[in-house]
Every structure is written in C-alpha cells, then in structure tokens.
Amino acid sequence: RHSGVAQRQADRRQRLWPPPDNTLGCAIRRLRAGANDKNHRGIEMQQPLWAPSAERIAATRMDAFRRFVNQRHALQLADYPALHAWSVAQREAFWQAIVDFFEVRFTQQPEAVLREGPAMPSAHWFPGATLNFAEHLLRRRDAHPALIAIGEDGTREQLSYAELAAHVAGLQQSLRAAGVGVGDRVAAFMPNTWQTVAGMLA
After folding, report:
1. What confidence score (pLDDT) does residue 167 get?
2. Strand ranges inside the chain, DSSP E
3. What is the pLDDT of residue 162?
4. Averaged over 192-202, what is the pLDDT?
5. CA 21 from chain center: how many Å?
6. How far is Cα 133 from Cα 139, in angstroms, rounded to an integer?
7. Is the pLDDT of residue 66 over 60?
8. 31: pLDDT confidence band, cut at 50, 70 and 90?
9. Cβ contacts of residue 196 below 8 Å, gap of 6+?
10. Contacts of 75 (CB under 8 A, 6+ apart)
C-alpha cells in the first residue's frame, strides 16, 4: 500500500513539474530533450554566445600590456592565450613587466622578483619589498569618477579622484591629531558606503 501511495505521488510530481505553460518549464523540457538527443551527455556548445570584436580587444588594458611585453622582449605574442603561456614559462619576466607597465612604486625595493622553492607554496614574490596601497589608489587627482555609491533608498553619490583624495587627506589629518601613528590599528564598524572606502585609505 505504501509503495502505491509513493508511486501516485511521484506520478503527480511528474505531471506538475516542470510547469507546462511557463518559460522555465519550456526551457527545462528543451534541456531534457537535448540531453536525451546527446545520449545524456548534455548539450554541447559549438560556438561561444558572444565574442568581442578585434577593435574592442585592442582597446583593452590587457591587450596594451601584451603589446608592451612584445616590444620589451622582442616577442610576437599574438593573443591572450599566447600571453598566458609566456607568463607561465617566464614568471620573473612577466611579473617584472607587470610592475613596470602599471608603474608600481615600491617604498622599499625588492631583493628579487621571485625566489622559488621546490614547490609553488614556497615561492616568494618580490621579497623585502614594501609599498603604500593607498598611494597607488590615490595617484589620480583629477575630475574623473573614482567612486559611485548608490544607497538602499536609491540615493546616488559620485566622487571624483580629486574629491576622494581630499576626503582621505582630511581624515588622515584627524587621525594624526588624535595621536594615531605608524603601527597603530584602528577598528570600526562601518556601512557599505564611500565613507568606509575613505576611512580604509586614510
């Protein structure tokens, strides 16, 4: 008797799902049909859904970096897969190129680019180097948007790089006046707003 009840419940679920007249139900039925047609191996994607144009790729920072590497090392890396393969084979040259291309400013210069051990977890990148994270994020001081904040009530605020730098500088001066110095830790519970970003950078 119990098995008969279970079977009737299973039959009922089969009739009710997927729903016959909605988009989700239709999509699920198509997916199931496709899976059956492929001997339950799933639908095989033959073509990507979208690919950027050559012009769009050429306008990216990634492609600018690829051209930078080609010029510096007299290479002919044609695309991203070639750049990736080179980065794996030439790890030190790749990361030094990253530092130079993005103009990373070390406060304390590294002793080397890479010190490798017998396995990846023992690798040390730029040992001995120090840098100021906030300095790099605040290098721009122009009117270009730096932060766009949208509150839960829909209010929208936008800060330029110049305005963000001014807020950070003001908070930094207040912290110094309160006696906060190098090595001190400041903890705060802050909401997800631009003021929290300014506090972190200060």
Report:
1. 96
2. 114-115, 124-125, 145-150, 156-160
3. 96
4. 92
5. 39
6. 10
7. yes
8. low
9. 190
10. 69, 86
Distance CA(107)–CA(105), nearest Å, equals 6
Contact between residue 28 and residue 22 where contact means Cβ atoms under 8 Å apart: no
pLDDT tens track for 152-173: 899 999 999 999 999 999 999 9
Give the pairing type, strands 156-160 and 114-115.
Answer: unpaired
Taking a C-beta distance cutoff of 8 angstroms, is the pair 83, 93 a contact?
Answer: no
Task: Count CB-CB contacts under 10 A for residue 14.
Answer: 9
User: Would the CA dihedral through 65, 70, 75, 80 be positive or negative?
Assistant: positive
Whether omega before 18 lies within 30 degrees of 0, making that bond cis, reads: yes
Residue 4 has pLDDT above 70, yes or no: no
Rounded to the nearest 10°, the torsion over CA 94, 96, 100, 104 is 120
Q: What is the DSSP string of 17-61?
A: SS-TTSHHHHHHHHHHHHHHHTTTS-----S-S----HHHHHTSH
DSSP bridge partners of 148: 158
Q: Is the pLDDT of residue 143 over 90?
A: yes
Fill in the amino acid letter for 177.
A
CB 42 within 8 A of CB 35: yes
Q: Whole-model pTM?
A: 0.67
